[in-house]
Amino acid sequence: MDLERCALQRRDEEPAESLRISSSSWSFVMTSILQPASSSTKLLPRLRQAVGGGGRDTRLVAMVIVLALIWLCANAVTNGVFLSPRNLFNLSLQVSVVAIMASGMILVIVTRHIDLSVGSQVGFLGVLGGLVQSSWLSDSMHAWWISCLVMLTGGMFIGLLQGALVAYARIPSFVVTLGGLLFLRNAAYELNDGTTIAPLSATFQNLGGGQNGVLGAALSWAAAAAVTAYIVFNLVRRYQRKKFLGVQNPLTAFDGVSAALWCVCAFGLVAVMNSYKRPGTTESMGLAVPVLILIAVTTLMTIIAKKHRFGRHVFAVGGDPLSARLTGINTQRVVLKVFVLMGFLSGLASIVLTARLNAAASGAGTMMELYVIAAAVIGGTSLAGGAGTILGGCVGALIMQSLQSAMVLMGIASPLQSMVLAGVLVLAVWIDTMWRERRPS
Question: What does the radius of gyration of the chain's CA atoms come to, in whole angstroms?
């Protein structure tokens, strides 16, 4: 109890910048759990080092500032088109696909691995789901949800196979997933001879945010109110828990301001989405289904990463695999689960993208691995492993898609767009390297 009170006191005063665990500190924390509680007061200096205390998440704040500058500049050069309700609505749909996969890629990179096959998975699983609807179960009214189940299961199977090769066969993840990229991309062509499957089920299209895949004004305001209620409830519960443990200053000004900003963001998002009307009508579009899916995925993945034992094991393995293994963590199983989770999220992203396009094309998802990896790295995920946040990945995805959307509105050619985004990725990795080198040990 004393150790938990000290940890909460420290987190209240100086929250961890990210979930970073060094090799020596992780082994110390795990072995110190077996020590008597009377020695807990001697653990505080080492515990502070273990959790990586050092102020607010300044990288995330910096990324938000960069995003705001990009939006202002893009809006200026496009004569106000970029921040129009229509473009922001389309931007939310584009970000959803990348951010869903980025939330899984973060855990993959945290464990010191990489998955280059996510774009090919999207194309392959999309064609597979399209065949279920158009050929195999074309006469069934349940074809749309069966195809979704097939795509999710197929993604998990791909992740299981690649994860087993990485974790148990000890083949480098770069080689395994590069092979998966080539194999799955060509397998997508072989499944349907490279032809596009369209149209798809009308119900299935709703998952992509089509005309009927939106909540409308009333339900969107209700969703914002529900998010606000959850934020307030979580804040009150945290206050009561800290007060029960005897923590001084159980509720700081930062906690209140942070909660208020999240509530403002929720209602602001809904206000923008409601300002976009259906073509030819005065009816508000509201939040799209892909945005709701992204919010659910982000919330669940954040809980897994921060609160669940599996998430702690993931960051422990990324911090130091040897120390994690010596403390009893099955590192191979953790890596396997991470790749299975990545496959599941790739299948979910494929569902959203295929439904939005109303077509299953074998070329879908081409170069998407660039966007996903860049989103994770820009959001603060270290390629050295052991550090990253789900929310940071979402901000990184928003930055990448904002840049692409701005370049499209400016009429920049597609090859040049890819060149610019590749340069942004290299710049993000360089910034991450410089950040880690200058960080005090």
Answer: 23
